Amino acid sequence: MKTLVVFLALGLPAQAANLTMPFPANQTFAETRPLSSHRIATEPFDGTLPSITAEGAVTRRIWQLTGAETTLQILAPLRAQLIEQGWEEVFECATRACGGFDFRFEIDVTPAPQMFVDLADYRYLAAQRGAAWTTLLVSRSGELSFVQTTTVDPDAEIAPLDPASDPVAPSDLPTPPNTSDVVQTLLEMGRAVLPDLDFRTGSTELAQDSYASLADLSDFMKENKTIRIALVGHTDAEGSAEGNMAISRRRAESARTLLTVKYGVAPGRVEIQGVGFFAPLTRNDTEAGRQTNRRVEAVIISTP
């Protein structure tokens, strides 16, 4: 895995957003890239995503919060803080009004487990102050809420981040003995394909009643009792977007049923999502490629 050089702004740059989370929060991710770009949505998705691309020092921070019952309870006080600091709101939307899954997969989101976006419950805000831009993305998953803030500041001065202050990464989770390939990948990347779960085109049923990947996943979760995961279903590109979204969710549900009923993982620790054909691993113009894309992935969504 490539090592990313991480930077942090010196003090508070003139244009940076300085936000206080409105609920108990743990910052799980922070980086600033000295010269990069960030795509900013300016209107809802409607076949395409109206957007601008801002360039400069791109600072991203992610928090996990507890105690909020809605995404608006989080976004509203953060929006008020931005306005008080002189930021001007350019665009704001919520879930369906944003464009649903199409919008979510067009914007720039840090992968799970740092950031998790429930396709049925998220909010987005873009604000501008001078030449700088800030975007907020808020979502909830069970009892946890997630906030991603991204600020693009062409005038920021930066210096290397002290490694001692870097937030805990998923790879800092305890590694159980005799770790399987699935669990090792989950620890290193925060997500892992369950490779032995095989689906035919259009099918949502699993042919077997036991799978090594689910057994390994259940052992890992039983040894790490505070971890929660999402099972995310995927399809090939055959059929409509709406139909594939439904199929992918049912595939995730089939895997969840086995994981909870046969392998004894508590249902409250396993969520399901379906993303249809919007996150392929490879091309869909061969049968081998389509088979690869029909899959279920495990994604860590909360850690100790």
From TrEMBL:
Alphabetized UniProt keyword annotations: Cell outer membrane, Membrane, Signal
Record-linked PROSITE patterns: OMPA_2 (PS51123)
Cited Pfam families: OmpA
Signal peptide, first to last residue: 1-16
Principal localisation: membrane
Compartment annotation: Cell outer membrane
Disulfide bond as UniProt keyword: no
Annotated OmpA-like domain residues: 182-304
InterPro entries the record matches: Bact_OuterMem_StrucFunc, OMP_bac, OmpA-like, OmpA-like_sf
GO cellular component entries: cell outer membrane
PANTHER family, alphabetized: LIPOPROTEIN YIAD-RELATED, STATOR ELEMENT OF FLAGELLAR MOTOR COMPLEX
Protein name as it appears in the record: OmpA-OmpF porin, OOP family
Organism: Jannaschia faecimaris
Higher taxonomy: Bacteria, Pseudomonadati, Pseudomonadota, Alphaproteobacteria, Rhodobacterales
